[in-house]
Amino acid sequence: MSMRLCLLAVLGGAILLSVLNLAVPPASALHVPTYAISLAGKYLSYALLAVAVDLVWGFGGILSLGHAAFFALGGYAMGMYLMRQIGTRGVYGNAILPDFMVFLNYKELPLTWYGFDNAGYAILMVLLVPGVLALIFGWLAFRSRVSGVYLSIITQALTYALLLAFFRNDMGFGGNNGLTDFKDMFGIPLQADATRCGLLIATAVFLSGALLLARYVVTSRFGKVLIAVRDTESRTRFLGYRPERYKLFVWVLSAVMAGIGGALYVPQVGIINPGEFSPANSIESVIWVAVGGRGTLVGAVLGAVLVNFGKTVFTGALPELWLFALGALFILVTLLLPGGIMGLIGRPARRPKNVTPAAEPAE
Amino acid sequence: MKLLRCLLLVLLLLPFAARAQDDPFAGFAGGYEDIRHAIEALALSGDKQAEPVISALQAGNLYLAADKTLWIKQGDAVLNARTGEAAATPPDGLKKVRLNNAVRRAIEAAMGSLTLFSADPATRASAAEAVFKSHDPAALPALTRALAKESDAGVRTAMEQARAAALLASPDSGEADRLAAVTVLRDRGDLEAQSQLDAVANGHQPPTVQKAAAAAVAAIARIQQMWMLAQGVFYGLSLGSVLLLAAAGLAITFGVMGVINMAHGEMVMLGAYTTFVVQQVLQSYAPSLFGASLFIAIPLSFIVSGAVGIVIERTLIRFLYGRPLETLLATWGLSLVLQQAVRSIFGANNREVSTPGFMSGAAQWGGVTITYNRLYIIVFAVIVVAALMAALRFTALGLQMRAVTQNRRMAAAMGIRTPWIDALTFGLGSGVAGLAGVALSQIDNVSPNLGQGYIIDSFMVVVFGGVGNLWGTVVSALTLGIANKFLEPLAGAVLAKILVLVLLILFIQRKPRGLFPLKGRAVEA
Predict the structure, then answer these.
(1) Mean pLDDT for each 10-residue chunk of chain B (525 residues)?
(2) Residue A356 to residue B524, Cβ atoms within 8 A
(3) Which of A244, B285, B499, B525 is the most exposed place for a label (fewest CB within 10 A)?
(4) CA angle at residue B385 from A150 to B421, to 5 degrees?
(5) Residue B454 half-sphere exposure toward CB, CA atoms < 13 A
(6) In the A/B pair of chains, how many CB contacts fall below 8 A?
(7) Does ipTM top 0.85?
(8) Would you kindly state where each structural domain of chain A is located, as residue ranges?
């Protein structure tokens, strides 16, 4: 029920905002400014990341502190496509090389950038790069039964390593300035109001698709085993299941979702830089899920939108208090509201519980 | 024919010999040319008055009296240049001895070789070092005489090296001399010697000398590589000890309680800010104690961070036992609050923490530069870890901690008050983080973000070393530190760090519980 409500709110809200932006004259009190459209699009991209995090954390019991890495990789793939679209309209007017490469004295396009002028290839990379990285990382980690805080820590190490790598100028991804100054996407100018609304609606559609897919996965037979793995991995293993396969599948699926979220995020925000890889971002995306309600897909969307809306309001009005508020949110939600908002309102959410007392390593 | 040549040589040298035997002081009464020769003769004479006279000339304090005697004006006193004694009655008709550029050059050259005869061994050594660097053949005669008189072994070596360098540079030294000189330079074995030998190997020299020099260059390169290695180990140990300080507390809390404290970095930061506050207070109220500020800060920051740690455990973490992932999130939130609190109180800028005198400066040990602050931090880390190990090994609290680490329920059944142990453990771990903060305040910027820079590295140390074993932490911190510093010259600092992280992620696959996992038969831990 609440899933239908959520889909309705996401899709209906996106369409309503677009109509109010395009069809209502600017003078009207009902007019929605374009920046609000982009902001809403940004929230929904984050919501897509939150759904991805919820899928692994809420249903697989894998606390990833590095999911923003997949988000940012998807974003970079899209950003590279958008960079190549600029063509001769850059500051240096080089048809092949993006501005920052001309500035850094690149003579020719690095191999990693080949093919990104083709939209199909770029979209493929949006899916493949996060997916393959997650596959390799997950295969290595789950196969050797790295779990719990150890896994959380090495996911954090992963995103930290990527952060450092993308800050380097000679990686060929724009160094600490990242990629920006995008002009158009699929031949349509990015700055136009209609494009912005189209992106918002596209994000809403992708988010809805992700929600439905995620619900299908977690309510299927596969999902039942996955939840069993979350609750007691060893017992599930003793019953003859291979927990690492279930975890790996959901892990890769989640990474691809996060990548799509990043790819939708970049054209709406207009920039992607290595800061997106910072461990703090990943941890923040976890708190969205916790606020909304871990283990409820709707809660992830709700948490992402609410927390980011709060961040926008707070950082505008009382910037120095935002970290206090965010920190307090982390503490209060984990202490007092383990079910999140979804746990508060009505339906008893399928609250995950950790059966294993973690502090008994040598029982 | 041979006789004739000898005769000619003697004839040629005669004027010089004659002048040197002349009274050198007399020359100052003549023209510029005579003054120049007088300076050279005086410098070579070894007369104890040579240095004061020439430096007086350089400063424009050398005067010629009407009776052609030389005088040095020193403030109001007038000294006899020949004896250095003050004149009873001021001489008449004092006229300044004039200088031109040729004379000035002669003065400078003379002063260079004169300091070779200084009474102070350190001055003599640095003069020899200067000659070594310039390897000017003109200094050869002075060097030879200085060597004959030298008694200090260290200065003697320096002079021999300088002489060897000059010999190699001189166009008219023999092949045997050159070969000997190459050996001397090779034994010196530093970069300066290497570059001079390199010039010899590729310069106009007899082939045997060139070959010897090339061999010596290669030998020095090998030695230099060894020193580079030693320097790398030192830097690595230094980085490792910093990591060790930051990670030791984390390892203890993780071992005993199974929770990762994401606010651990902020405990380090609190320690650093405590050091800052201690210094500020001392500066205002007890400046005489300022030199001991670090020794006052060490117990204080342990207490401050430890107390904050206990408060955190009592008010936050104890409600989250059995939920390690939630603990991770809650402590992360706490770290944000602490950072912002410190930023609000002290400002976002870096704070100045001064380094006491005994910790600044550096020592040279062969080819290795050892900065004292890094050295002291290594020592400090050793002391802290030794104290920690002793506490775990020999105190009742340590025994109980180890019991809880191994088996919480069994420990509780034996009458150990595990909540109490948890609180104290957390306090101890946080206190050690505070100590790390004192150390870091000496080498890093004291800012609200101080802890953030070390927290991920500390996690890596704990994950690599394994839980519940302080030795594991020690080994892993030092390994990571040294690995980092050795990869740096190969790959650059950032890439080295990335490489280490990737290697660690791969390592965890092989040993998911770290280098020294706690032994047990649990399925889930």
Answers:
(1) 56 48 72 81 74 80 81 80 77 80 78 74 78 74 78 81 80 77 79 78 77 82 84 87 89 81 90 91 84 88 94 88 83 90 87 79 76 88 91 89 83 88 90 92 85 83 79 88 81 78 79 69 49
(2) yes
(3) B285
(4) 65
(5) 36
(6) 177
(7) no
(8) 2-344
